[in-house]
Amino acid sequence: MSKVQKKDNVLVTRPAHQADALCALIEKQGWNAIRFPTLDIVAVDNDNIRQQLQTLEQWHWLIFISTNAVNFALGSNNGKIERFKKCSIAAVGKATEKALRAAGLSVDLIPETHFNTEGLLATQEMKGIEGKNCLIVRGQGGREVLADCLRERGAKVEYLEVYSRKIPACDTSRVSEMLRQGTLNAVTITSGDALNNLLSMINTNLHEKLQAVPLIVISNRIKELAEKIGFKKIAVTENPGDAAIIKTAVMMGLETQQLTNGEYSG
Question: Is 151 domain-assigned?
Answer without folding.
Answer: yes
